[in-house]
Amino acid sequence: MANKITQGLNVLPRISYRWLKVNELNFEEAVAMPLKPYNLDFLPPNVDPGLTLRKMEPGFGDQNPISTPFGVSRELVELGETNCNGGFNLLIREGTKLAEPLYFKYLFNEENDTVIDHNIIRAEKDSAVTIVVEYRADGDQPAYHNGVTKIFADQGAQVTLIKIQRLNDQSLHLDSHYIDANPYSNVRYLQVELGSNFAITNYLANLKENATATVDGMYLGDGERTLDLSYQMIHRGYRSTSDILVKGALKDRSRKIFRGTLDFRRGAHLSTGNEEESVLLLDPTVKSDAVPLLLSEEDDIQGGHAASAGKVDPDQLFYLMTRGLSEQEATQTVVKASFQPIIDELPSELRRNIQDDIKRRLVAENV
Amino acid sequence: MTRKKTYVADIERELYDQRNPFTYSHKTDKGLTPEIIREISAQKNEPEWMLEFRLRSLETYYQLDLPPWGPNLIELDIDNIVTYVKPIVDRQYSWEDIPDDIKQTFDLLGIPKAEHEFLAGVGAQYDSEVVYHSIQESVAKEGVVYLDMETAVHEYEDLIKEYFMSLVTPRDHKFAALHGAVWSGGSFVYIPAGVKVEIPLQSYFRSNAPGAGQFEHTLIIVEPGSYLHFIEGCSAPRYSVNNLHAGCVELFVREGSTLRYSTIENWSRNMFNLNTKRALVERDGAIEWVSGSFGSKVSMLYPMSILQGERARAEFTGVTFAGGGQILDTGAKVVHAAPHTTSTINTKSISKGGGTAIYRGLIKVTKNAYHSKSTVSCESLILDNESISDTIPVMQIDTDQVDLGHEAKIGRISDEAIFYLMTRGIDEEEARAMIVRGFVEPISKELPLEYAVEMNNLVKLELEGTIG
What we know:
The structure holds two protein chains of two kinds. Chain A is mainly beta. Chain A has helices at 74-82, 314-322, 327-343, 348-363; strands at residues 4-5, 31-32, 51-55, 88-92, 102-107, 114-123, 128-136, 144-153, 158-166, 172-181, 186-193, 198-207, 212-221, 226-235, 241-250, 255-264, 272-281, 287-296, 302-310. The model of chain A has no long low-confidence stretch (mean pLDDT 93). Chain B is built from eleven helices and 27 strands. Mean pLDDT of chain B is 85; it is low at 461-468.
């Protein structure tokens, strides 16, 4: 059973110089993903008649096997498919538009410290849905999460997936996403990474003609956290649009690797892709790596990436301090402001809670 | 919808493809063995330590593997490459004494004319050995040393022993090890403290032998407060067998000095160009790279600047033009290893006719390099949908006190830019031509005039309809 996690995680689609050790993430020691049941309820109540929602069965066979390799690693995707103890199979029928988000909530406790969830979301023609998935572990008991989420958005479907990760600082979070964006569909992915010792996520979207896929991510690295975030937009059809925007802040001895790829395949003419990563570095002990790849086989496309890293803008700090804020308060204000556009998109009942969490982590002195 | 496309001509190679009959006074067998290494060393009458260095490098070569990243090098069969070809001529200090066919080659490339008009010194290498070396008297009087490496090994043995392959060590990668084992030719430049050499020095490397390797070594030391502009040119005629170029450039830039290193590389399309260039920059020093990559079948070239002293500075300006069948994997690496260091990387690439242009770069900021600043800009233009352009940069930051910005763009000429120029009364075709010329201009303006003209000739445009 491949539940030992060691190496070859989030491998770059094009590798580079070996001595930098950024081509993939490797654990120094193997980490075992426990295989055990999860007995808490995580499905949302009150299901709309326009959809079918079932708990995922382990080993559920896909009717449409995915030919593009994706995920944190192939083994972890297989582990999620064959040994899931959670997850859902969701069908949104043609034309169904849900006004309220579907909210899936995984809480972790001593008996239920492991979630292996396999999720399949199929949004039929012209449907619209917002799905919120939260993973939360308070206390000190390490939590283990390995997720595999697949979204199939049919023609004209609109899918928004919001993922919020708030596991405690001892936890392991592995999360793989595959998006199949068909013509005229629009798939949005909002990602909030606030916890775990290791947070390793992977996202891959296949874009057909006239499809749109976007990523809005925010993360906060504090304590000893390692964040390894991988995104890959593969433009296969013409006039497709992608956008990756990831904002983060690093403090204490946290470490982050951003891997973002825009890949324009032959036939993706008239497509545009954008990729932007910006990180605020708050302590001299942080480490920040970024590998934004731009690959193209087509001439008539527009692709751009921008990455920036640095201290909080001194002019902004100065302005806020002239208004009576201390340096620390001013820094926090700037960091919180950079996260605000994503926070605003979250369900209102979660917003306050997450803002408090960010504030607590920013203030904490992790010596 | 079919658009008319602008035709960008392939690089005019006629001039470079002039082959001379393959003659030599000595050449080694194909392949790589300790015996061949001993033979090369004996031909050069080298000191014992250099022979030992070569043999150690050969061992390292066998230990190291090929890089798993980048272009496929399987086709490169080192057992079929002749590593050492000595031309039928000894090193000359007078142009008149060079055999006619070799002289004619360099005449056609414009080397003696350039020397006469705007260079302070010239070195010309033909296959494995330097055939001509000269330096202006006024420059030599100031203590400037400009020699071929073989002579330098004898005349400046202590300096060479100390610095040779100390910055790019044979352990660096397989082709650095190969270079250490079979190096031949190249230039040694020493600029004494405070001397500013106002006019450039140039070395030209010409590879004429088929199925041969060229492994020249360039070592430059610019002492505190000095200035040098060094120009390197390379070309070879085309053969049906693969040739290999694995040169090595080591630059030592001392306190407060500036070194500008320009390269126009136009190897033939059967050349594997696996070159390693590195500069170590001390306090207040500056390295300025100008790099034009036009030729070769496969190139892997990423000049590296190690900013070791406070306020050291690196600038890199590069243009890569990949035509059909070429894979040009080029870029720049900068390591910020001291406080207040700055770097600027500016690259442009054009790919057409099935060519592959890849930018591969690195910015690394170490823990103590606080208040460092780096700006990277990469722009790629793809002229048709048979060609490929990839951008593979890595940024690695281990401190918080940095200001790092990276930008990359890929795509076609923007309609807005065309429209703007047309509102100014320029017709569409001319507008497009202006934009393509403007695209490569940042590098051509960094070159001495004569070279800028040569480069513009390399990128000939036949404009018709649109680009992209």
